Amino acid sequence: xxxxxxxxxxxxxxxxxxxxxxxxxxxxxxxxxxxxxxxxxxxxxxxxxxxxxxxxxxxxxxxxxxxxxxxxxxxxxxxxxxxxxxxxxxxxxxxxxxxxxxxxxxxxxxxxxxxxxxxxxxxxxxxxxxxxxxxxxxxxxxxxxxxxxxxxxxxxxxxxxxxxxxxxxxxxxxxxxxxxxxxxxxxxxxxxxxxxxxxxxxxxxxxxxxxxxxxxxxxxxxxxxxxxxxxxxxxxxxxxxxxxxxxxxxxxxxxxxxxxxxxxxxxxxxxxxxxxxx
Length: 278
Hints:
Order of helices and strands: EHEEHHEHEEEEEEEHEEHEEH
Low-confidence stretches: none
Structural class: alpha/beta
Shape: globular
């Protein structure tokens, strides 16, 4: 069991790292599966097996995105050990990746990876409700790997999120380089932990961005994307999985992938070599 989690509330790039980790394990010949709480979903039953075709309203946006990007079996259940048992019973997997669950101590684990937002770090350093921490900073001493979405410090590994092509939500085979949109005025929506990160990426690429932040895991409706004009609407891939049923030609999303540094990959592979593979 490999747990990828956060020490703070809010997004830090955890899901892209889970996707990258699943792909990394697949390239090494392993058969990963994923368990998740399924935050934001209302499953008709528990545990719930998730595919790319599952409604995000049932499974949550992140599990559907992970299933679509990796092709791995995914099971959601707030009871993560029950999710893991269901995953093993129904699928031929030799390693389970937990998307979040660092603080879910009923879930046994062999390897813990913490993802840190390089811009916000740990805020004021206090635990909830006085600050953003789910656990004290001393918890970092006990985890196996600390990955920073941004520049890493001592004892940390750096991670970048990269994406340079927009995909049309109504026709995902239609993509365009982000550079071709330089100077264009667009609406940008983001219902993620840190919407500013997405808006900054578009602005840095030279787009003129009208920002529309939404709460993390927001359940979009068609009128959320109607701004009374014909401008294109850009969104994250996590937002896109919830908007595909009412996609229009002017709706686009920016897929991103995790790009951890070589030192992280070497340290990870060394840890993986010690795991008790099934």
